[in-house]
Amino acid sequence: MARRQEGAPGKEARHAAILQALNTDPTVRISTLAARFGVSGETVRRDIETLSARGAVRRTYGGASVTHAGVQPDFQAREAMAGAERARIGNAAATLVEPGAVVMVDAGSTTARFAGALAARGTGATLITNSLPVVSAAGDAPGLRVLVAPGEFHAPERALYGAETDAFLRRFSADVAMIGASGLTLEGPTDAESRAAWVKRAMLDRCPRRVLLLDSGKFGRGYLERVAELSALTDLVTDTAPPPPLAAALARAGVAVHVAECV
Q1: Phi, psi of 120 (to 5 degrees)
Q2: For the CA atoms of the chain, what is the radius of gyration?
């Protein structure tokens, strides 16, 4: 049995590196990754099989590629992607919440980072969410009241969806919606999951301030369903300034762009 070379990255670090590589290149080769990591090709092949089972990558002959427009990685896989960037975005988004605000928060790895950042800041607020990671991140924080939407549990997203979820959200009037998305194009935020898109729309409909939390690796990515037009948003919180065409479209739509600073 081939042993991992001393100093070679562990399994979780390799998974994160593979996903990060696919943020810049549409395909990766097993041989290239094996040389980069200092491990065997069989080890990388098993890594790709694991990520493929999560929906994070698509297996190809000799490597892996990005997933189809109708598929996105599950919550666990996304947690390994752009972790530092998403933490910055979550921290920046938390500064937008006024004490006493009512905030709707949808399911996603970046919105869960937001909930954790809000809890760490000690801001008193009411959160309305369909996300169990958001509940976990915020539920024990003093000053945070958390209302959880009912629905059918969807394990890959660790979230609740369905007609009951939508009806519950529409009972409330909130101050701010904090949502994520699978991608962002000139036409608006997109999502690979129709059930998630419905929840996002319900939250956007109930809030005067509508904030999209999105890392720059999702710029230009169009998925199965458009959630809303750009003009439905009031703010975008991201880690890098959008490219000129997208920046111009956001400006025309009146969307304020907040670039989270490195700390």
Answers
A1: -65, -30
A2: 19
Query: Contact, 33 vs 69, CB < 8 A?
Result: no
Same domain, 121 and 241: yes
pLDDT of residue 221: 81
Residue 71 DSSP one-character state: -
pLDDT at 11 over 90: no
**How many domains, the chain?**
2
Q: What is the domain extent for residue 218?
A: 78-259
Predicted structure pTM score = 0.73
Q: What is the C-alpha separation between 39 and 13, in angstroms, rounded? A: 13
Q: d(Cα 62, Cα 92) in Å, to the nearest integer? A: 40
Spatial contact of 103 and 174, defined as CB atoms under 8 Å apart: yes
| 141 and 190 belong to one structural domain | yes
Burial of 59 (0-12, 13-18, 19+ CB in 10 A): middle
